[in-house]
Specification:
18 helices, alpha/beta, single chain
Length: 463
C-alpha cells in the first residue's frame, strides 16, 4: 500500500474510536497525545480508556456501534474484535469520504497510525503501511536510543527564534546556513550539555553575525559515493550530502544514493559514458568554482573514490587555484567493494602480495600499458572501465606471457542487487562476457585470487 506521510493538525477535532479492547486502548493513547477529542463507542469500556477520553475532553457511548455515530466526524478508527463490525464501519466511512483506519486490515485503511518517537516539539513517525507493525516498533526502539530527549529542547529553541530569524534575515540561503550551523555547532552542543542559557546566548550572537553578512562563503565537497550500495557510504559523506545546496553527480551514482541528498538541492547530471560526456571535465571543474563563488555549498558526488580514476585531483587543482574552500571525503573504491561483494579477496598470502589498479580506458585507446609488469606473478590486477577494451587486454596479456589458463573475473554492477559475476580464464572470458550480454559499469579482476572464489564457497561461480 502506498501512503503519503502527512502530519495532520487534529487538535480538539472529534475522532471516532469504535471498540474498547487492548488494541483500542493503544490507539486511544496515541490519538489523545495528538490533542484530538475522542469519541468512543463500545458496550464495555475499561477505566484506562475512560481516563484517556476524559483527558481528551471527549465522550463515551456504552452501546453497540450504529451508523449514526459516524456523522459529524472526519476521522474514524475501527478496533473491535469483530471483523463484521469493522467492515461495516469501513463501508459507512468510505461512503461518506471519511478517513478510516481498520486495525490489522491495511486493505481497509485510508490512513494508518505510525509508530511515533516524541521529542516534543520534534516528532518522528515510522510507518510500514500496515505491513509490519513489529518492524516499525523495532525501528522505533532503535531511534529512541539514538535520539536523546535534548533534541526536543533544541527543536524548541529553534522554534522560539524562527520568526525573529525570518524577519531579520531576508535571504533564504542565509537563513538555511544559519540553522545548519546551529544544529551542527556550539548552539546544539550547549543544549545537549544541559546549558540552555548558553545555547540561547550563542544563538543570538549567531543571528547578529549573520545579519551583518552580505555574501555567503561557498564550499565544495568532493564525496566518494562508493561502488553503489548505499550502506557503504561513510558517515561524513552522508553529512556533506545533507548540507549541499547543489549536487553534481556522475553516471555511476545509484538512484538510491542520490535520494539521500537534500530534497530541495539542485541536481546537475555531469555523467560520462563511453563516447557520451554530458559535460566535459574542464567545464565540470569550472562549474564547481562558479557555483561556490555564488556562495553555495556544492556537492561533487562521484562513484567509488574521488581520487582513484575519479579525476578529483583535476577538480581540486582548479578549486585551489581560485581559493575555493573544499573538502575531500574518501569513498570505498570499486576494487574493494566489488571484490568483497563478489567473494574475491584482492590479496591472499598464498596468491598475491600486491594489487595494481589500472584504467581500462588506456587499453581501449590503444595506448601502451606496462604489460610486462602486469604479468608478474603473485599480484592481483584490477582494470577499471575495461569492458570495451577487454579483448585488447586479454590479447596483450597473452602476448606478454600469461598462460591462457590464468584466472580472471568480470563484475557487473558490483555491490548492487543486480550484480553479476563472470569468472573464467584468459582463454574464455571474452566469449563468456559476450554470451551473457554484460553491460556497464564493470570491473575486471585478474589473478590467482579469482580461483579462490570457488574454493572459499562464498558465492556461486559464474553467477
Amino acid at each position: 500500500m502506498q501512503l503519503t506521510p502527512i502530519f495532520a493538525r487534529l487538535s480538539q477535532q472529534p475522532v471516532l474510536l469504535v471498540g474498547a479492547g487492548l488494541v483500542a486502548r493503544r490507539k486511544a493513547a496515541a490519538l489523545a497525545r495528538g490533542g484530538v477529542r475522542l469519541v468512543v463507542v463500545a458496550p464495555d469500556v475499561s477505566p484506562d480508556i475512560e481516563d484517556i477520553v476524559a483527558a481528551s475532553g471527549g465522550e463515551i457511548h456504552r452501546e453497540p456501534y450504529r451508523e449514526a455515530f459516524i456523522d459529524g466526524v472526519q476521522w474514524v478508527v475501527a478496533a473491535t474484535d469483530s471483523s463484521e463490525v469493522n467492515r461495516q464501519v469501513y463501508q459507512h466511512a468510505t461512503a461518506r469520504g471519511i478517513q478510516i483506519n481498520v486495525v490489522d486490515r491495511p486493505d481497509l485503511c485510508s490512513f494508518t497510525l505510525p509508530s511515533v518517537v516524541h521529542r516534543d516539539p520534534l516528532i518522528i513517525a515510522i510507518g510500514s503501511g500496515g505491513a509490519s507493525p513489529v518492524l516499525t516498533r523495532m525501528i522505533r526502539s532503535r531511534i529512541e536510543s539514538a535520539i536523546p530527549a535534548s533534541f526536543g529542547d533544541l527543536a524548541g529553541l529553534m522554534a522560539k527564534f524562527r520568526g525573529q530569524v525570518k524577519q531579520r534575515l531576508a535571504n533564504l540561503n542565509l537563513r538555511r546556513r544559519l540553522w545548519q550551523n546551529v544544529v551542527d555547532g556550539p548552539v546544539a552542543e550547549a543544549v545537549f550539555s544541559g546549558n540552555p542559557d548558553l545555547a540561547e546566548r550563542l544563538l543570538r550572537e549567531s543571528i547578529n553575525a549573520a545579519e551583518q553578512q552580505t555574501t555567503l562563503p561557498g564550499e565544495v565537497f568532493l564525496v566518494g559515493a562508493g561502488p553503489g550500495d548505499p550502506d557503504l557510504l561513510t558517515v561524513k559523506a552522508l553529512r556533506c550530502m545533507q548540507l549541499a545546496d547543489v549536487v553534481l553527480y556522475d553516471n555511476l551514482v545509484s538512484p538510491a544514493i542520490l535520494d539521500m541528498t537534500r530534497a530541495d538541492a539542485e541536481r546537475i547530471y555531469v555523467g560520462k559514458r563511453a563516447s557520451n560526456h554530458a559535460m566535459p571535465q574542464q567545464e565540470i571543474s569550472q562549474r564547481l568554482v562558479a557555483l561556490a563563488q555564488q556562495g553555495k555549498r556544492v556537492l561533487r558526488l562521484k562513484g567509488g573514490d574521488p581520487f582513484i580514476f575519479g579525476r578529483g585531483g583535476e577538480e581540486i587543482e582548479l578549486l585551489a587555484q581560485h581559493r575555493v574552500p573544499f573538502q575531500v571525503v574518501p569513498g570505498i573504491t570499486a576494487a574493494a567493494g566489488c571484490g568483497a561483494y563478489a567473494g574475491i579477496p584482492l590479496t591472499h598470502r598464498d596468491c598475491a602480495q600486491s594489487v595494481r589498479f589500472i584504467t581500462g580506458h588506456l587499453a581501449r585507446d590503444n595506448s601502451e600499458l606496462p604489460w610486462r609488469e602486469l604479468v608478474m606473478p603473485q599480484q592481483t590486477v584490477v582494470f577499471y572501465m575495461g569492458l570495451i577494451g577487454l579483448p585488447i587486454i586479454v590479447e596483450r596479456l597473452l602476448e606478454h606471457g600469461l598462460p591462457a589458463s590464468h584466472p580472471i573475473a568480470l563484475v557487473e554492477k558490483g555491490t548492487l542487487p543486480e550484480q553479476r559475476v563472470v569468472c573464467g580464464t584468459l582463454a574464455d572470458i571474452v566469449h563468456k562476457v559476450q554470451t551473457r550480454g554484460i553491460g556497464g559499469p564493470t570491473l575486471i579482476i585478474m589473478g590467482e585470487v579469482v580461483a579462490l572464489r570457488d574454493k572459499l564457497k562464498w558465492f556461486d561461480v559464474d553467477s
